[in-house]
Design goal:
The structure is a single chain. With 94 residues, the chain is of the alpha+beta class. The chain is built from three helices and two strands, in the order αββαα. The chain folds into two domains: 38 residues, no CATH class; 34 residues, no CATH class.
Length: 94
């Protein structure tokens, strides 16, 4: 996907990325940074996230809520333990 966007350079060298670009690359996330790479005649900006983008689902509010629920189940002893794969699969069949 090649999209051309022109950015205005503001005072003190500030660039503002469009909101849609920030959202698409998860740059609105706390801790997100942009890496600048300079090559001959080219300036590249690379989004750098505090966690890989393909793991963002894990950090969603809903998933974190489910993680807390699972942790509470473990603390409360609402878990089943299996000694091995066969026992686990037999438990699932019941």
């Amino acid at each position: 996907m090649a999209e051309r966007i022109f950015l205005n350079l503001q005072g003190r060298g500030v660039l503002n990325l469009p909101a849609a670009v920030r959202r698409r690359h998860l740059l609105d996330e706390p801790g997100a940074q942009v890496e600048l790479v300079e090559r001959e005649g080219v300036i590249e900006l690379h989004p750098q996230l505090p966690r890989p983008a393909d793991q963002a689902w894990f950090w969603s509010a809903r998933w974190q809520e489910m993680e807390r629920e699972a942790d509470e189940d473990v603390r409360a002893g609402r878990v089943a333990r299996a000694e091995g794969v066969e026992e686990f699969l037999a438990e699932l069949d019941e």
